[in-house]
Design brief:
Blueprint lengths: L15 H17 L4 E5 L3 E4 L13 H8 L17 H13 L16 H12 L15 H6 L1 H22 E2 L7 E2 L1 E9 L5 E10 L17 H8 L44 H10 L4 H17 L22 H14 L12 E5 L7 E7 L2 H43 L1
Antiparallel strand pairs: 1-2, 3-4, 5-6, 7-8
Helix pairs in contact: 3-4, 6-8, 6-11, 7-9, 9-10
Length: about 425
Amino acid sequence: MQDSLQLSHWADGVGLEERARQLAAVLRASYSAEGTCAWLRRDRVLLSVNPGRPLPGLHGDRSCTQLLQLAVWRAHAQRGKESPAHPFALGEAAAQRAADGGKAWVCVVGESGSGKSEVAKLVLLHLLDLPPNVMHTYADPDAEAVRAGASAHRAIGVAVVLSRGLLESFTHAATPANPNSSRLVLATQLRFSPGAFLVGARYQMTLLQAMLAGRPPSRAHSNFHVLHAAALSASTDELGGVVPSELRLLGGGGAGDDGDGDDGAGGPHTSARGRRFDELSAALAALGMGAPSVRRLREVLLGMLLLGQLDTRHLSRIGANGEPPPAPSVAEARMKRRCEELIGDGCDVRDLIPGAVPSAVPGGGGRPSGHLAAFTADDRERMRARLISRAYELLVFGLVQWVNGTLALVAAQSLTDEWA
């Protein structure tokens, strides 16, 4: 893509539709030429297009290497020099503003599949002064850099990289057009010292479409990656006799709806990009979560999946006619018992959602009759979906708070070690 789109050449009389047409034509030509980025406003607004295919050297070519070598924290930044159009350059512009004592924001916006998550990672890696393969390479900083805070910078930076990947598994899902579609608004706050070394980081997050967790996914979609990872790590016995591929909340057993009344795909989405649960466990352990807590987290996730598997008649103590519901079969009783064990704390699934509502006296203006009217199967299904979704949302929110505490601890420990 040409380094800068000449928007200033547009005449004042050119309408929005014509500008959009011209921009689309430029993008098509640049896409064919394997260009991906262009400045709409140099060092301020970058247009980045998802190439949809691997491009050799995209993140390791001469321009990228130059941008990394001239990073502001290496005291080699060339102020005023035009930067090539690249996410690294956008990160460098923000770093320079922060190094000058100001505040800088980098907002990454776009449609699903446009590459928001990947561009945000590239900007973040540049701000952290870490290479894209940071988890596999390490270069010892020189003595001067160590004194300035390089060791703490790297420790905090690696923790940020680990935690970002971890949160991605809890907040992303697959769609037909995007195997790693984000379902959140995430703000990553970085704090730098006067020497432009990282001294702290924290997250603020809002989970979008949290109701997805409690409902079977639509055709060719997936639920949140971590739910698939947890299920794939479980055996049929561990799930109370349920085969992992038959879990409703993952699209198994014909569950789900594509929005037009047609049945779902009849099986879980197999292209979900989520990591294996052992990889997530390793990331949690590296960030300081103990093995018992990791196991408990996995059990809660599996318990949610089994709760979504149960017959809604067994989620209530009152049947359709105000009488006790039918007794579960042997297989259903085993699944129910296993669900309660996984959720823990003496859980009885019949107490998780209301079983009935007071009925009103006919013609009595809403006055209760003293009798209970059982909820319908659809009512119970909606309440179950809301319960699971809300529980998942709270779990993710709690995880973010734990990660923030871990980042603060890493920063405090790293800085204390350097000052000692």
